[in-house]
């Protein structure tokens, strides 16, 4: 689709609502097992037919919280991994901030789309499953950035993914997580399923230390969505 329109326009948002109704009916939309969920993510990208309005999480811009953090934490040639990169906006922000960036997503459809959107990119885009990553990625990246993937997974996948992500951080490196948040013990009606503090603190069970937590709200016309950006470090 060549004329996608302004992502904030009523016309774009109407296409998004229509797509949401369609994809909410697909197997795996409300959870299911790992295979159902993976099938659903791939179907969303495939059925979008090149229209980003039909990919509910595609903002077509990097997350503001990430951009603000990168302004204070430039890469200066350090390596970064963008986890489950979708259409690539956050990965491009990491690269623009001076990180040698690798980005992966389960869906080859998303990876092809990201490469098409950013033909001059220095990002190394790869199709890969979080639960079957190359062995030589263990302890490899100075910065691992994860945005909105954990909140899209339920336990046991969420629990397992936290262990995988922690393992990707190089000694002395950092992990930056951006997610919707909810109070400890409160209900989550997803997807997405906002995370509780005790869930992101599971990173500490995998050897990381929590060094910062920034709680903030994302305002929508009809609601306020609590978020957290949490930063962890792996000891040298
Ligand atoms: C809610 S989207 C977030 C995309 C992007 N990180 C962002 O901030 O816009 C979740 C992404 O996770 C990807 N994903 C889901 N399960 C995955 C897995 N097992 N391995 C890699 N990527 C996965 C989906 O294809 C989708 O692009």
Compact summary:
This protein is 31% helix and 24% strand. The protein has 236 residues and is of the alpha/beta class. It has 2 domains: 10-54, no CATH class; 64-233, Vaccinia Virus protein VP39 (Rossmann fold).
Helices and strands in order, then pairings?
Blueprint: H1 10-23, H2 34-48, H3 64-72, E1 79-83, H4 89-96, E2 100-105, H5 108-117, E3 124-127, E4 141-147, H6 157-168, E5 169-180, H7 197-200, E6 209-220, E7 223-233
The structure holds S-adenosylmethionine.
The site of S-adenosylmethionine has 18 residues, from α2.
CATH topology of the largest domain: Rossmann fold
Please provide the ordered H/E string of secondary-structure elements.
Answer: HHHEHEHEEHEHEE
- Radius of gyration equals 17 Å
Number of strands: 7
CATH architecture of the largest domain: 3-Layer(aba) Sandwich
Largest sheet: 7 strands, mixed
Q: DSSP helix count?
A: 7
Dominant shape: globular
**Low-confidence region ranges:** none
Sequence of strands across the biggest β-sheet: 3-2-1-4-5-7-6
Name the assembly state.
single chain
What is the CATH H-level superfamily of the largest domain? Vaccinia Virus protein VP39
Distance between the first and last residues' Cα: 47 Å
Secondary structural class: alpha/beta
* Ligand roster: S-adenosylmethionine
Q: How many domains, as an integer?
A: 2
CATH class of the largest domain: Alpha Beta
Helix content: 25-40%
The percentage of residues in β strands lies in 15-25%
């Amino acid at each position: 689709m060549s004329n996608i329109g302004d992502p904030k326009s009523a016309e774009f948002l109407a296409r998004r609502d229509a797509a949401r109704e369609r994809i909410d009916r697909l197997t795996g939309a409300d959870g299911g097992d790992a295979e159902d969920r993976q099938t659903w993510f791939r179907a969303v990208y495939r059925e979008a037919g090149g229209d980003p309005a039909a990919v509910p999480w595609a903002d077509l811009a990097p997350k503001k919280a990430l951009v603000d953090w990168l302004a204070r934490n430039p890469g200066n040639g350090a390596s970064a991994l963008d986890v489950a990169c979708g259409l690539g906006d956050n990965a491009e922000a990491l690269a623009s901030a001076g990180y040698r960036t690798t980005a992966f997503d389960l869906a080859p459809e998303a990876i092809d789309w990201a490469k098409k959107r950013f033909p001059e990119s220095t990002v190394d885009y790869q199709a890969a499953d979080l639960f079957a990553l190359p062995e030589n990625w263990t302890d490899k990246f100075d910065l691992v950035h994860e945005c909105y993937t954990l909140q899209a997974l339920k336990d046991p996948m969420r629990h397992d993914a936290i262990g995988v992500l922690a393992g990707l951080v190089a000694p002395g490196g950092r992990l930056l997580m951006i997610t919707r948040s909810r109070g400890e013990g409160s209900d989550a009606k997803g997807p997405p399923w906002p995370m509780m503090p005790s869930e992101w603190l599971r990173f500490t069970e995998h050897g990381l230390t929590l060094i910062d937590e920034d709680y903030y709200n994302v305002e929508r016309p009809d609601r306020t969505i609590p978020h957290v950006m949490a930063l962890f470090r792996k000891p040298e």
